[in-house]
Amino acid sequence: MTKARLLRLSVVLVSIFMILLIIVYWDNVGTAHFYLHTSFSRPRSPGAITAGEDWEALPDVDEFLAKLLSSSLKQNSSIPRKTEQLLIQGSHKPVVSNLEENVRGYDWSTHKDRNSLDQEKLQVERQRTLREFCANSSFTFPTKERSFDDIPNYELNHLIVDDRHGVIYCYVPKVACTNWKRVMIVLSESLLDQGVPYRNPLDIPREHVHNTSTHLTFNKFWRRYGKFSRHLMKIKLKKYTKFLFVRDPFVRLISAFRSKFELENEDFYRRFAIPMLKLYSNHTNLPTSVSEAFGAGLKVSFSDFIQYLLDPRTEKMAPFNEHWRQVYRLCHPCQIDYDFIGKLETLDEDAAYLLQLLKVDRLLRFPPSYRNRTASSWEDNWFAKIPLAWRQQLYKLYEADFVLFGYPKPENLLKD
After folding, report:
1. By C-alpha distance, which of 399, 329, 337 is closest to 144?
2. pLDDT at site 369
3. Alpha carbon distance, N-terminus to C-terminus of the chain
4. What is the pLDDT of residue 373?
């Protein structure tokens, strides 16, 4: 009897072990290639956990999965460089078919005249600011105090994972996210062109870049890993390099307005412009297509857009669209300890430095900036006709993004 029980117990344990192996390794995205960037020197907080550190703090299941995943490190001690040839293929200038990219254009200048920034010190300062305000109990904003486990899966859809290089990117719309998504596609080899992975980010069509099926994001983990999904997320958050790029919140709003309401965008016209024109401009019997509306001179004004953001009915109907949703709601910076915080205002320098830290700068280069990027110097003109009370309310709405990421309070817009 004892032998029979031992045999049954062994079968059960082996079965559980095999299921875990299948969950971890039998994955077409590349978890089997769990190439972790744990050896390169990168700016991180003094308490940051790197590979092999502080595993005792993990729960039992996390610890078991972590050891399983770490075992692959011994087999894959370095990231394979399939091609030692330089894959920096940005010398040819692609034909830009998207309306927005045609209007904005690419800036192909080399920016050699820019002063090089002390990137390491810059990162330390940005991370210190973020950590201090996340820890400051007197500074509050919605969702600040919740734990990572309290974040619902649907709010983790902006965290893109590259298992090949051990990278997690939280994308923020209107902060160079199209090109950073292109970079992530190249790194993860998640999209093929005639059977071959893309090598040049700018070769990837925009419609594929924003297709949600192209990227592995945290909110997809439940379908792949079931009840182990949160455990795997936590392990990857501890061991992978996590980054995001941010932008002055008011300038980001102007940029969102320009691209979604000043250009003909059928989807945004029907979902947002028609309700705004009805609610705030008292228009009725509006055209069903954006081209007809533009032809008749019916466009959402910036004032309409600000009223929409401040209207309490907006959030009751649905959460803010990602293009104007606050960064703290997209990327959860007080729950996730980001290793790198980039800013659009220093995009070229930050991007080059990050690719070096990730040790992928020989594989690709970050695409060039847009020529006519929305500038902070435009704020005064854009907000000139917005009532002072609205500007003050708007600041309160986006205050957490200003403070957490070190953007100065726009005093000139908030006073008479």
Report:
1. 329
2. 72
3. 87
4. 72
Asked whether the beta carbons of 151 and 329 are under 8 A apart, the reply is: no
* Residue 212: strand, helix, or coil: helix
* Cβ 338 vs Cβ 332: under 8 Å: no
| Secondary structure element (H or E) that encloses residue 169, with its range | strand 167-170
List beta partners, residue 243: 169, 340
With cut-offs at 50, 70 and 90, classify the pLDDT of residue 416. Answer: confident
Structural tokens at position 66: 């972590």
Cα dihedral across residues 306, 243, 318, 217: positive or negative: positive
How far is the CA of 274 from the CAs of 182, 268, 279, 323, in angstroms?
32, 9, 9, 18
Spatial distance between the Cα atoms of 261 and 255, rounded to a whole number of angstroms: 10
Other C-beta atoms closer than 10 Å to the C-beta of 115 total 6
Chain centroid offset of residue 355 CA: 16
Average pLDDT of the chain is 82
Token readout for 96 is 């830009």
d(Cα 360, Cα 355) in Å, to the nearest integer? 5
Judge whether 394 and 311 are in contact, CB under 8 Å: no
Write out the two tokens for 137: 């109990």
> CA 408, CA 346: separation in Å to the nearest integer?
16
Residues listed for the chain: 416
Cα(49)–Cα(239) distance, integer angstroms: 7
Q: How far apart are CA 177 and CA 244, in angstroms?
A: 9
Residue with tokens 């401040």: 310
Q: What is the pLDDT of residues 334-382, one digit of tens each?
A: 999 999 999 999 999 999 999 999 999 999 999 987 655 777 788 999 9
Instruction: Give the tens place of pLDDT for each residue, 115-171.
Output: 446 999 999 999 999 999 999 999 999 999 999 999 999 999 999 999 999 999 999
